[in-house]
Amino acid sequence: MLTGVLLGLGDAAAAKTLIDENASLLAAQERDFLFGLCESRLGKTARALGLLGPYLHADPPRFWGFPDPLSRSLLRIALSEALADSGDPAGAMDQLELYTQIEGSRDAERGYALARAAAIASKVADAAALNALTVGHGVLARATLGPKAATALRARGDAANAARMEQEALSLRRQLGLEPAPPSAAPADPMRLGLVVPLSGTQGRLGEVVLRGAMLVVTAATHGLETVAFHLQLRDAAAGPERSALGGGTMAGILSLAHEEKVVGVVSTPDARGIDVAAREGIPLLLLDERSPGAQSTAFPIIHPAESRAVALARKALALGARRFAILGPDSPSGKRLAAAYKKAVEDGGGTVTGHITYANGATSFSAAVASLRKVAFEALFVPDDASRLELVAPALAVADIWPRSPRTAFTAAHAAGSTGQGRREALLLSTALSVSPKFLHNAERYVQGALLCPGFYPADDARSGSFVTRFREVYGTSPSATDAYGYDAVFLLRGAVERGARSRAEVLRMLSTQTFEGLTGDIRFGPDHGRIDVPLVYVVDGDSIRVLK
């Protein structure tokens, strides 16, 4: 019993002395077992394995005064340390896995086993990890050594088996509650930026548009004086490896850029496997997406969530003095989500939603919905739909003599915009207006004057985006779309981090997590879950132009 206490306190030398002094009181099997525990603690690996080897796959001896769970726990820890020191990391992890399965083990024991396994794996070379896993081992060994073994396979040119091993390790790590594997220590070239988008197939047009904006980043001059030697490395997310010299599939593209091109970061369309592999490799990944990938990832979505754009409009209207709000939107899942986010923001700001009128998703006639709207008192009207639908809704409102009011006009107690009476009525017109373009203004100009829009991006000739818009028109002969702007901003973040001094993937990740970048689509900043938390830009229709509302 005292031997167990001394071992628990970490005093293996005193425990060994105690056993020596009382050896005659112990059976040979008991004495050898206790000596083995002490030798392991004292770093005498060969001696410990010789004494404890019979218990690699068996329970220890039972004897009076030494609780069975304690002897089993001490045995598994002793064997794991001895095996790790002797060059058998997978065997060491199998013992740690047995340690977690002892009856009565708690979260603390499990946490210790996971942490110790990770520490052992961190010291194992890639080739040694692969060699260790050539024979069958448990879940913990495959989860912790698998990523390194996959790297060794890839170095041998065995990409198929490497991918299978990576996926198995990632699945097992999730099962165990482990974070994605530690970032790869592979060197990166800070002047090489990666782009994985569909360049062929049905979505090839999307990739071409993203590429247009991205190319303007890598060819832009620094301080207007000279062109910096940034290089954009491409992979086709739509093509299979057998069909493309560039390497196909998002996951394969990211891996290829990481290992072959040594890029410091990648811009990509969303793909769950691509996000997982980027996390494992420690690669900064800018996603052309609005969904937050989570704090454990290395991915950052470049697009504001649609709900945050609805909230930005509500808060802007509240700041301008509106207190009664109505919603006129599609009866669709997305329309309902935007309306709910907008309503909550209004109520949180002290306003009231007096009516929510819906129309069929994809409708082209709105007379019935607008007639219902005339019965509602409101000072601001939110249309949670895209620009092509707003082009049809705005004239229908005008037919019912409901017109947008200028945001420059102050709300007063005498102002009757919220009334339900007959005659002309004016209200702030708000819309997310996704995909708004100069064509929208041409088609609906007189019906949307003063409207506040939050589409994510509009090619305004202002201080923020004017030079980009001008250069884009010079190079491509057309105005940039929101997709062009997002492609530009995503690559711009990688270049911006490098220009601020980042020279490794880890440094780029740190800057993306902690710093703000002035992009085309806002002052880009990411939150703890890596989603965008900066306030989306709100634009106003002003005469024959659409500009950012100050």
Account of the 3D structure:
The chain is of the alpha/beta class and 550 residues long. The protein has 3 domains: 2-176; 185-304 and 460-533, Response regulator (Rossmann fold); 306-453, Response regulator (Rossmann fold, 3-Layer(aba) Sandwich). 47% of the residues lie in helices and 14% in strands. The strands form 4 sheets. Strands 8, 9, 10, 11, 12, 13, 16 and 17 form an 8-stranded mixed beta sheet that branches. Strands 4-1-5-6-7 form a 5-stranded parallel beta sheet, sandwiched between helices. Strands 2-3 form a two-stranded antiparallel ribbon. Strand 16 (539-542) and strand 17 (545-548) form a beta hairpin. The chain is elongated.
Largest β-sheet summary: 8 strands, mixed
Give the averaged pLDDT, no decimals.
87
In total, how many beta strands?
17
User: Given the structure, what is the number of helices?
Assistant: 21
Structural class assignment = alpha/beta
Q: Please give the domain count.
A: 3
| CATH class designation of the largest domain | Alpha Beta
| Whole-angstrom Rg | 32 Å
Proper CATH architecture of the largest domain: 3-Layer(aba) Sandwich
Instruction: Report the end-to-end length measured between terminal Cα atoms.
Output: 76 Å
